[in-house]
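Revision sheet: structure tokens.
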Amino acid sequence: MMKKELNYFKIGASYGGNQDWFPDFMMKIGGCAALTACDSCIYLDLFGGMPGLYPFDREHLTKKDYIRFGMLMKPYLRPRWSGVDRLEIYIDGLLTYLSDRGCRSIGLDPFYGSSPFSDTEKAVKRQIDRGFPIPCLLLNHKRRSLKDYEWHWFLLIGYDISGQRWMVKAATYGGWQWLNLAEMWDTGYERRGGLILYETL
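Predicted:
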């Protein structure tokens, strides 16, 4: 049995940020990519040795500042009616934000949902072991139990491996949940999302 969970941050009682906080209509219904980028930047600022990615007080995370941060990120990963439905849109938007913050020490690589599950297991374990959260895009899915994650960006921040059973810890909407990675990866649809792999340069 192997298990690893990343340190994470709380904002009040919320486990990370929460999309429901936003009064901006488009951010509330379609800001998940921007807010996954926000949560990644806060994590990397606090725990990844990359200070400055979060532009507010890192010692006192507040809901008010998180909303301000989300609105700063909005132009980089603009919500749209079709959603941020390709990995490349996320990569281009976040890389532009990182460059504007003067950060050139991290790269972003796409890991497509069409990749074999055996490669996915290795990629997830490698990223978490290296201390990186993993942005995940899930599009349509055959399982009703994953309906809340459809057409949605969220972070993977831990794994729990017991025999052939592979679970991942997903963080979104101010909470977390353990998901079966094999079930999540097997969407039942030809068009799939995938993962973003962070790498130090």
